[in-house]
Amino acid sequence: MVSLYREIPLEIDASRAWETLRDSRNLARVFAGVLTDVHVEGDLRTVTFTNGLVVQERVVGVDDARMRVAYTVCGTNFEQHAASMQIVAESGGGCRLVWISDFLPDDRRVMVEPLMDAGCAAAARNLAG
C-alpha cells in the first residue's frame, strides 16, 4: 500500500482555512489550477481535474473539533483508497494543511502523487490570507 503524506504551511488563520476546506463546494476554488469543477450531492462529490480526469469521492467524516475531513475515492481506479485533509493551527497565527492518502494498487502512485503535489501548491496559493 502506498501512503503519501504532505504537510504545507498556509498563510491564513486556521479557522478561516477550515471554514473553506470543510465545505466540498469550495474545493474547485481551493484547488484552482488542478480542479476545474466539483459537483456535490449528499456525501458524494464528483471532481474534475484540469487533465480531464473525473473522480467520484465519498466524504466519510467531517470533524470540526479536529478540523479534519476524511474521504475515499470510489470507482475502479483503486482497490482501496482512504484520504484525509486536516488544518493544524500554528502558534502565532497561520496554519498547516496535512494531507494523507493511502491506496492500492501501488502503481497508482504515478497518477496520484503529481496531482497531490499540484494540489498542495494550489492550496497554498489559493488559501493565502
UniProtKB/TrEMBL annotation:
Q: Which domain of life is it from?
A: Bacteria
Q: Pfam families of this UniProt entry?
A: Polyketide_cyc2
Please state what the protein is called: SRPBCC family protein
